[in-house]
Structures are given as C-alpha cells and as structure tokens.
Amino acid sequence: MRIVSFKHDGERRLGVRSGDLVIDLNRADPEIPADLKAFLSGGPGMVSRATRAVESGQAAISASDVQVLAPISDPDKIICIGLNYADHAVETKMEVPTEPVVFAKYATALIGPGDGIRIPPSSAKVDYEAELVAVIGKAGRDIAEADALGYVAGYTVGHDVSARDYQLEKPAGQWLLGKTFDTFAPIGPDFVTADEIPDPHALGVRCVLNGQTVQESCTDQLIFRIDRLISYLSHVFTFTPGDLLFTGTPPGVGMARTPPLWLKSGDTVVCEVDGIGRLENPVV
Predict the structure, then answer these.
(1) Phi/psi of residue 279, each to 5°?
(2) What pairs with residue 155 in β-bridges?
(3) Burial class (CB in 10 A: 0-12, 13-18, 19+), 274
(4) In terms of C-beta density within 10 A (0-12 exposed, 13-18 middle, 19 or more buried), how is residue 143 classed?
(5) Cys-Cys crosslink for 283: which of 139, 199, 260, 267, Cβ 3.0 to 4.6 Å?
(6) What would the pLDDT profile of 244-264 be if each residue is shown by its tens digit?
(7) What integer pLDDT is reported at residue 84 of this predicted model?
C-alpha cells in the first residue's frame, strides 16, 4: 500500500493512494486513526482494516483535491546515519567508518512535499542530501540482525538538509544543530509498506537541483545496511512505532564540489528513491 497523510476540508486524514485517487481510510472505516503513527501502533490488525477499506471502493477523493502532508509529523525519534555511502565518505575526505555515525533531528524539522525549506539567516552553507528513510512499525530493543527488517513497516523519501558551517565549523562540530533547523527534514510524499519493496538495498537514489541531477547512486552501496543499523541502534535505545531512520546520502553533495554548491532562495530540490516516490520542495 501507498499510504498518504493529507488534509481535506480542513482536517488531517489518512488515505491510500490508488492511481489518481486517494481512498479516505477514516471515512471508509471510522475505527482507523487519522495519524500514521497511531495506525502503525495498531499492528497487523490495522493494516487488515485498511485493506478492507480499500477493497470496499468507498470514500475515494481525487488526488488533486487533497494537500499531501508529511507522512508522520510526530515521531518519537528521528535517527540519522552519516557517511553511510563509501563514495560519499571519500568525497568528503573522511575515513570510511567502522561503526555507524549516528545523529538525530527533532520533529520540528519535519515538513511535507511542497513545503518550503527555509534558509536560516545564521547559515551561509546549506546543503542537500537525498535519502531513503525506513519507518519503524513495532517496538523493540536488542533486536537480532536477522530479525531487524521485520521491524520496518515501510519506507519514504527523506531530505537531510544540512547547515555545513554549523555541522563542521563550529567548535568541536555541531552535527545536531547543523541538521535540525526547522524545515531541515522534508519527508514524503508516500509511506510505502514494506511488502511493496522486495529489497530495500537495491533502490536508486538521486537528488535533482533546479533540473540538474546532482546526486545519484543505489542503496546497494550502503556501508551499513538497514538490518545492521536497526540491530546496532536497538542495543542503545528502544525503537517505537513511527520512528524514522534516515539511512545516509550518496555522493554529489554541495560541500564536496568545486566551487561548493549551496542551496539558495528560489531553488527547487527533488529527492527521488525508486519504487518509493518523488519529494519536491522549494527553497525560501
């Protein structure tokens, strides 16, 4: 299923995209929550209800009549992995990590498709980073690597916007601050359930800036695969439904170019992951 969070008639809703239509799950079945995190917390039974709602053929809305929102607006955690493509580590002149490089964003950084990425007045070096995002579907801690993909409910497209001057030039580096300015975590438009993605490690990832492809790679280049990341992280904290895991970005980022290529007001950034979707945001 391709699940979308959307606004219609002034209300936040949850739906399933079907061609040019969106099936309003909340109208078709009032027991289905209008929030994706709550939906995921409902477990397999909620997915079954959604399947029946779609099969009923009721409550269809034209996709052009809805405002698509970020799939999840209030995750407990937004976990991000740095330097997770070997060629990206090389272009940034950093050593290929032997363990995952982990940082976080706050939920206030989340925006949806079409929302503006705001350049903060305090940063002159804002960069783009297209990413595959795994969405956790059930709670777990101390998860075995062999079981880890079973904790992934699905996937979405993410954009890890980064203020490089904060991240790399402040005293001791400020990864958290450089990564979590408001609007620095666009995601969406769709949440695609894991059963639709046979192999999350064989997906093309690209970023297109003002019509020019600036990043392009494949998730088969991940240094640490999703199952490894979930197992590694779960020995530190408990995953909960709706947690977002940004899995890293391919080479081609602006900071590694000569001259550097920074985002500016008026730009349009498109992040794409094959089989998942196309996320477009203006820069303001």
Answers:
(1) -110, 120
(2) 134, 192
(3) middle
(4) buried
(5) 267
(6) 999 999 999 999 999 999 999
(7) 94
